[in-house]
Design a protein that fits this description.
The protein contains 9 helices and 7 strands; from the N terminus they run αααβαβαββαβαβααβ. By secondary structure, the protein is an alpha/beta fold. The protein is 46% helix and 19% strand. It has a single domain, classed as Rossmann fold, CATH 3.40.50. α8 packs antiparallel against α9. α5 links the parallel β2 and β3. A 7-stranded mixed β-sheet has the order 3-2-1-4-5-7-6, sandwiched between helices. The chain is globular.
Length: 269
Amino acid sequence: MQYDSIKRILGNAFNQSSFTRILFYKLLDILLLRAWYIKREIRKFRKIKRDKAEILDAGAGFGQYTYYLSLLSPNWKIKAIDINKEQIEDCIRFFNKRKSKITVSFEEADLTKYKKEETYDLILSVDVMEHILDDRTVFKNFYRSLKSNGLLLISTPSDQGGSDVRHEGEESFIEEHVRNGYNILDIEKKLLTAGYSKVDVSYTYGLPGIISWKLSMKYPILLLGIHKLFFLVLPFYYLITFPFSCLLNWIDVNKMHKTGTGLIVKAWK
Protein backbone atom coordinates (compact mmCIF):
# COMPACT_ATOMS: atom_id res chain seq x y z
CA MET A 1 0.00 0.00 0.00
CA GLN A 2 1.28 3.46 -0.89
CA TYR A 3 0.74 5.70 2.14
CA ASP A 4 1.79 8.85 0.26
CA SER A 5 -0.70 8.24 -2.54
CA ILE A 6 -3.54 8.09 0.00
CA LYS A 7 -2.33 11.34 1.53
CA ARG A 8 -2.33 12.97 -1.90
CA ILE A 9 -5.91 11.88 -2.53
CA LEU A 10 -7.00 13.34 0.81
CA GLY A 11 -5.05 16.53 0.13
CA ASN A 12 -6.73 16.97 -3.26
CA ALA A 13 -10.15 16.32 -1.77
CA PHE A 14 -9.67 19.17 0.73
CA ASN A 15 -7.97 21.49 -1.76
CA GLN A 16 -11.16 22.81 -3.33
CA SER A 17 -11.00 26.17 -1.53
CA SER A 18 -8.97 28.05 1.07
CA PHE A 19 -11.62 27.20 3.65
CA THR A 20 -11.44 23.43 3.06
CA ARG A 21 -7.64 23.59 2.91
CA ILE A 22 -7.48 25.27 6.32
CA LEU A 23 -10.06 22.78 7.63
CA PHE A 24 -7.74 19.99 6.42
CA TYR A 25 -4.84 21.58 8.33
CA LYS A 26 -6.94 21.82 11.48
CA LEU A 27 -7.99 18.18 11.24
CA LEU A 28 -4.38 17.08 10.76
CA ASP A 29 -3.34 19.17 13.77
CA ILE A 30 -5.87 17.36 15.94
CA LEU A 31 -5.57 13.83 14.59
CA LEU A 32 -1.80 13.63 14.11
CA LEU A 33 -0.12 13.29 17.49
CA ARG A 34 3.20 14.51 16.09
CA ALA A 35 1.54 17.88 15.44
CA TRP A 36 0.76 18.15 19.16
CA TYR A 37 4.43 17.64 20.02
CA ILE A 38 5.77 19.90 17.27
CA LYS A 39 3.40 22.76 18.06
CA ARG A 40 4.33 22.55 21.74
CA GLU A 41 8.02 22.95 20.85
CA ILE A 42 7.27 25.80 18.44
CA ARG A 43 5.39 27.63 21.20
CA LYS A 44 8.48 27.29 23.41
CA PHE A 45 10.58 28.75 20.59
CA ARG A 46 8.17 31.67 20.20
CA LYS A 47 8.69 32.66 23.85
CA ILE A 48 12.37 33.17 23.06
CA LYS A 49 12.00 34.57 19.52
CA ARG A 50 8.97 36.84 19.52
CA ASP A 51 10.99 39.37 17.57
CA LYS A 52 12.64 38.72 14.22
CA ALA A 53 13.40 35.12 13.33
CA GLU A 54 14.16 33.25 10.13
CA ILE A 55 12.67 29.77 9.94
CA LEU A 56 13.10 26.91 7.49
CA ASP A 57 10.34 24.34 7.05
CA ALA A 58 12.48 21.58 5.57
CA GLY A 59 10.17 19.17 3.78
CA ALA A 60 7.02 21.27 3.93
CA GLY A 61 4.67 18.79 2.22
CA PHE A 62 1.11 20.13 2.34
CA GLY A 63 2.32 23.29 4.08
CA GLN A 64 0.58 22.46 7.35
CA TYR A 65 3.41 23.67 9.60
CA THR A 66 4.28 26.60 7.36
CA TYR A 67 0.70 27.76 7.79
CA TYR A 68 0.85 27.33 11.56
CA LEU A 69 4.12 29.25 11.78
CA SER A 70 2.66 32.04 9.64
CA LEU A 71 -0.01 32.66 12.29
CA LEU A 72 2.34 33.09 15.24
CA SER A 73 4.39 36.23 14.69
CA PRO A 74 4.39 39.08 12.16
CA ASN A 75 8.15 39.36 12.67
CA TRP A 76 9.04 35.92 11.37
CA LYS A 77 10.41 35.21 7.89
CA ILE A 78 9.55 31.67 6.81
CA LYS A 79 11.09 29.63 4.02
CA ALA A 80 9.43 26.34 3.04
CA ILE A 81 11.15 23.83 0.80
CA ASP A 82 10.24 20.41 -0.56
CA ILE A 83 11.58 18.08 -3.22
CA ASN A 84 8.06 17.63 -4.63
CA LYS A 85 7.51 20.35 -7.25
CA GLU A 86 3.76 19.75 -7.39
CA GLN A 87 3.34 20.34 -3.66
CA ILE A 88 5.47 23.49 -3.75
CA GLU A 89 3.37 24.94 -6.59
CA ASP A 90 0.20 24.01 -4.71
CA CYS A 91 1.40 25.76 -1.54
CA ILE A 92 2.36 28.86 -3.51
CA ARG A 93 -1.17 29.10 -4.93
CA PHE A 94 -2.73 28.72 -1.49
CA PHE A 95 -0.50 31.27 0.25
CA ASN A 96 -0.88 33.77 -2.60
CA LYS A 97 -4.64 33.68 -1.99
CA ARG A 98 -4.13 34.33 1.72
CA LYS A 99 -1.94 37.42 1.17
CA SER A 100 -0.26 36.90 4.53
CA LYS A 101 1.48 39.83 6.18
CA ILE A 102 4.26 37.47 7.20
CA THR A 103 7.00 36.83 4.69
CA VAL A 104 6.50 33.24 3.46
CA SER A 105 8.37 31.86 0.45
CA PHE A 106 8.55 28.44 -1.17
CA GLU A 107 11.23 26.65 -3.16
CA GLU A 108 11.67 23.24 -4.72
CA ALA A 109 14.87 21.85 -3.20
CA ASP A 110 16.71 18.64 -2.33
CA LEU A 111 17.75 18.58 1.34
CA THR A 112 20.94 16.66 0.52
CA LYS A 113 22.03 19.71 -1.49
CA TYR A 114 20.27 22.65 0.14
CA LYS A 115 22.24 24.88 2.54
CA LYS A 116 22.22 28.59 3.34
CA GLU A 117 25.16 29.55 5.51
CA GLU A 118 24.14 30.75 9.02
CA THR A 119 20.67 31.89 7.94
CA TYR A 120 18.04 30.27 10.16
CA ASP A 121 17.11 30.54 13.82
CA LEU A 122 14.92 27.44 13.57
CA ILE A 123 14.89 24.53 11.13
CA LEU A 124 11.81 22.33 11.29
CA SER A 125 11.85 18.83 9.81
CA VAL A 126 8.66 16.83 10.40
CA ASP A 127 8.47 13.23 9.16
CA VAL A 128 11.17 13.82 6.57
CA MET A 129 14.39 12.13 7.68
CA GLU A 130 12.90 8.63 7.47
CA HIS A 131 12.54 9.23 3.72
CA ILE A 132 16.19 10.27 3.14
CA LEU A 133 18.96 7.68 2.92
CA ASP A 134 21.87 10.14 3.11
CA ASP A 135 20.83 11.62 6.44
CA ARG A 136 24.38 12.54 7.52
CA THR A 137 24.69 15.02 4.64
CA VAL A 138 21.31 16.55 5.49
CA PHE A 139 22.27 16.96 9.17
CA LYS A 140 25.47 18.74 8.08
CA ASN A 141 23.53 20.99 5.71
CA PHE A 142 21.11 21.88 8.49
CA TYR A 143 24.02 22.66 10.79
CA ARG A 144 25.65 24.98 8.27
CA SER A 145 22.32 26.69 7.61
CA LEU A 146 21.64 27.45 11.29
CA LYS A 147 22.75 30.62 12.99
CA SER A 148 24.81 30.33 16.17
CA ASN A 149 22.57 28.89 18.93
CA GLY A 150 19.97 28.03 16.27
CA LEU A 151 17.64 25.08 16.85
CA LEU A 152 16.95 22.04 14.69
CA LEU A 153 13.60 20.42 15.53
CA ILE A 154 12.88 16.97 14.10
CA SER A 155 9.93 14.58 14.37
CA THR A 156 10.69 11.09 13.07
CA PRO A 157 9.80 7.43 13.77
CA SER A 158 11.85 5.49 16.31
CA ASP A 159 13.23 1.99 15.92
CA GLN A 160 10.66 0.80 18.48
CA GLY A 161 8.04 0.15 15.83
CA GLY A 162 7.92 3.61 14.28
CA SER A 163 7.15 2.36 10.78
CA ASP A 164 4.86 -0.31 12.18
CA VAL A 165 7.73 -2.80 12.01
CA ARG A 166 8.43 -4.63 15.27
CA HIS A 167 10.16 -7.81 14.15
CA GLU A 168 12.96 -8.54 11.71
CA GLY A 169 11.68 -9.37 8.25
CA GLU A 170 8.39 -7.52 8.63
CA GLU A 171 7.38 -5.08 5.90
CA SER A 172 6.72 -1.47 6.77
CA PHE A 173 3.15 -0.21 6.82
CA ILE A 174 4.56 2.87 5.12
CA GLU A 175 6.49 1.67 2.08
CA GLU A 176 8.04 5.06 1.32
CA HIS A 177 10.36 4.94 4.37
CA VAL A 178 14.02 4.13 3.68
CA ARG A 179 14.56 3.14 7.32
CA ASN A 180 12.18 1.68 9.88
CA GLY A 181 13.07 4.26 12.51
CA TYR A 182 15.96 5.80 14.40
CA ASN A 183 17.65 4.45 17.47
CA ILE A 184 18.03 7.28 19.99
CA LEU A 185 21.76 6.78 20.41
CA ASP A 186 22.26 6.54 16.63
CA ILE A 187 20.59 9.82 15.73
CA GLU A 188 22.22 11.57 18.68
CA LYS A 189 25.66 10.38 17.54
CA LYS A 190 25.02 11.47 13.94
CA LEU A 191 23.99 14.96 15.04
CA LEU A 192 26.94 15.42 17.41
CA THR A 193 29.28 14.22 14.66
CA ALA A 194 27.73 16.82 12.34
CA GLY A 195 28.82 19.51 14.81
CA TYR A 196 25.81 20.24 17.02
CA SER A 197 26.76 21.35 20.53
CA LYS A 198 23.76 19.83 22.31
CA VAL A 199 21.21 17.16 21.39
CA ASP A 200 18.02 16.24 23.26
CA VAL A 201 16.03 13.20 22.06
CA SER A 202 12.85 11.87 23.66
CA TYR A 203 10.23 9.26 22.81
CA THR A 204 6.75 10.12 21.58
CA TYR A 205 3.84 7.85 20.68
CA GLY A 206 3.74 5.77 23.84
CA LEU A 207 0.88 3.32 24.32
CA PRO A 208 -1.88 5.99 24.19
CA GLY A 209 -0.35 7.48 21.04
CA ILE A 210 -0.02 4.10 19.35
CA ILE A 211 -3.70 3.34 19.95
CA SER A 212 -4.68 6.81 18.72
CA TRP A 213 -2.55 6.44 15.58
CA LYS A 214 -4.20 3.13 14.74
CA LEU A 215 -7.66 4.59 15.22
CA SER A 216 -7.09 7.87 13.42
CA MET A 217 -4.62 6.91 10.68
CA LYS A 218 -3.71 3.25 10.18
CA TYR A 219 -7.16 1.65 10.04
CA PRO A 220 -8.74 4.35 7.83
CA ILE A 221 -5.81 4.22 5.39
CA LEU A 222 -5.95 0.44 5.24
CA LEU A 223 -9.63 0.70 4.34
CA LEU A 224 -8.94 3.34 1.69
CA GLY A 225 -6.23 1.10 0.29
CA ILE A 226 -8.87 -1.57 -0.29
CA HIS A 227 -11.33 0.67 -2.13
CA LYS A 228 -11.98 4.38 -2.58
CA LEU A 229 -15.65 3.87 -1.68
CA PHE A 230 -14.51 3.85 1.94
CA PHE A 231 -14.16 7.65 1.60
CA LEU A 232 -17.94 7.72 2.02
CA VAL A 233 -17.66 5.90 5.34
CA LEU A 234 -14.86 8.05 6.80
CA PRO A 235 -17.05 10.88 8.20
CA PHE A 236 -19.11 8.38 10.21
CA TYR A 237 -15.99 6.50 11.30
CA TYR A 238 -14.35 9.67 12.62
CA LEU A 239 -17.58 10.81 14.27
CA ILE A 240 -17.19 7.78 16.56
CA THR A 241 -13.40 7.62 16.97
CA PHE A 242 -12.51 11.33 16.99
CA PRO A 243 -13.16 12.00 20.73
CA PHE A 244 -11.15 8.91 21.75
CA SER A 245 -8.21 9.91 19.51
CA CYS A 246 -8.14 13.42 20.96
CA LEU A 247 -8.16 12.12 24.53
CA LEU A 248 -5.40 9.61 23.78
CA ASN A 249 -3.29 12.30 22.11
CA TRP A 250 -3.68 14.58 25.12
CA ILE A 251 -2.61 11.79 27.47
CA ASP A 252 0.39 10.90 25.32
CA VAL A 253 1.73 14.43 24.99
CA ASN A 254 1.45 14.99 28.75
CA LYS A 255 3.35 11.85 29.73
CA MET A 256 7.03 10.92 29.76
CA HIS A 257 7.68 7.73 27.79
CA LYS A 258 10.40 5.16 28.44
CA THR A 259 9.81 3.93 24.91
CA GLY A 260 7.65 4.90 21.95
CA THR A 261 7.29 4.61 18.21
CA GLY A 262 8.21 8.25 17.57
CA LEU A 263 11.01 10.66 18.46
CA ILE A 264 11.21 14.39 19.06
CA VAL A 265 14.76 15.54 18.42
CA LYS A 266 16.16 18.94 19.35
CA ALA A 267 19.70 19.90 18.37
CA TRP A 268 21.43 23.25 18.91
CA LYS A 269 24.31 24.71 16.94
